[in-house]
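The material for today's practical consists of a large collection of protein records. Getting from the letters to the tokens is the skill we practise here. To make this concrete, we reproduce a full record directly below:
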Amino acid sequence: MTTASLRSVYPGPGGFDPRQLRREFPIFGNNPGLVFLDSGASAQKPASVIDRVAEYYRTDYANVHRGVYRLSARSTELYEEAREKVRAFLNAADSREIVFVRNTTEAINLVAQSWGPAFLKSGDEVLISVLEHHSNIVPWQLLRDRIGIKLVVTPLDATGGVDLAAFEARLSPRTRLVAITHVANATGAVVPVETIVQLAHQRGAKVIIDGSQAAPRLPVDVQALGCDFYALTGHKVYGPTGIGALYGRYDLLAAMPPWQGGGEMILHVTFDKTEYQHPPHRFEGGTPNIAGAIGLGAAVDFVEELGRDNILDHEEALTGYGVDRLSRIPGLRMLDAGQRRLGILSFDLEGVHPHDVAQVLDQHHVAVRAGHHCAQPLMEWFGLSGTTRASLGVYNDEHDVDRLAEAIEAAREMFCR
């Protein structure tokens, strides 16, 4: 079935019916009874994405940009069409502002290793928040150790959201970059990035946003946000693994040096010097993940056909239902997530290790994540070593949350009698 007919065939109050929509995801047909609540780690793939990748390998595969024969030209066309789809998905001004990378981790590292040494010096400050995933902490620590920048951390307020007053107070004349998440992966806290960008730009700082959790469930408009960089991961947007995208304002990308050398990212090479391609190809050395990019384009089509406003309405309602349902379980503590929580239900069950909870849930065919969620500083902030995290997708509904709650009750009965 094509995505163009998804909403007409699977209508529902949120624009689609999640239970019927599961038919588009082969994983559920092959795993009867599965309640998949780990989309924050990696979302399942619709048949339209799986089939598009397979079709590309069967009918269109060749290397891109270098061949003059028809198959290579066709492959190049499909690859660049995928770039244009991502541009439209983020409402970037120009497709040259979209760099294909492996994931958000690589996108942030690209900025840290290319823009960082070119535009930062010892004593300059990079400002991050307590909410960040390790992928938005460690690259800046590596840069600190390399060139001597200062890493400044802004705290949370009493609700578990970014403390905007504290954030503004930590902006200094030395702040050159703010690196901030859009939706926190461990709690689902939605960060007011529009305000963050405005405050940072008033002080002359650039802003990079980690959009891993936001891109699958929020309409993202990088021009409206005004950010300088935005990173997303394809496998969380119902696309393949090993593909993602970095949006960067073209003037910034054009001023950045390459971060990896090799084929395709060059214009001319001699043993004395090399001239580099213009963005985005300057940052895409070597044979890229062509099939992954085309699969990401198909995933973007899938999300757009469902409608991002519909997805947001669905996940907001389901998140609220989940908070209400789980909060009634004795001994269960939901992690605070600021004024607005989206797509993530992260909790601690008193007296039971998160891994034990997750194992019991798995016995009830409920798949969740347990641990620190690559956010150890945030776990320390909450005084925990880890949590159990249920994360939502378009294929989840209230019945899934009820199954989750029932499985948690079973774990509680097993360990807390």
Notes: The chain is about 40% helix and 15% strand. The first helix runs from residue 6 to 9.
